[in-house]
Amino acid sequence: MILIYSTFPSLNSAKSISELLLEKKLIFCANFWEHNSLYLGKTSDTLDYNEKILKNMDDGNSQIITSYEVGVVYKTSSKNWNELCNLFSEIHPYSTPILLKINVEELNSEFKEHLSNYGFK
């Protein structure tokens, strides 16, 4: 089993893509949480979705950007990783989405059995 972390610009986009992934049986579960993010951007970047410039950096090329986002953690099988990466590049609303793969080393036997009942390992 692996966990995949990604972010979305809205709860609606996170839910609609997650529903599609569930229908395709590419994920077993999706957990959502809304949050604000701070990150570096270039002054030449076009702002997207909910982004706002918080501060221009002294180097003249960088900015601190703030944005509302929805974080999602997916539970899935490692065999689905490549297909999820390909699908995300086609359907994700961000031009450069993050897909962070987290390998699960251990899992309690009850949940492992529960996952296997749905074809996930």
Automatic annotation (TrEMBL):
InterPro entries: Ion_tolerance_CutA, N-reg_PII-like_a/b, N-reg_PII/ATP_PRibTrfase_C. It comes from the Archaea. It comes from Methanococcus voltae (strain ATCC BAA-1334 / A3). SUPFAM superfamilies: GlnB-like. Belongs to the CutA family. This is CutA1 divalent ion tolerance protein. Signal peptide: none annotated. GO terms for biological process: response to metal ion.
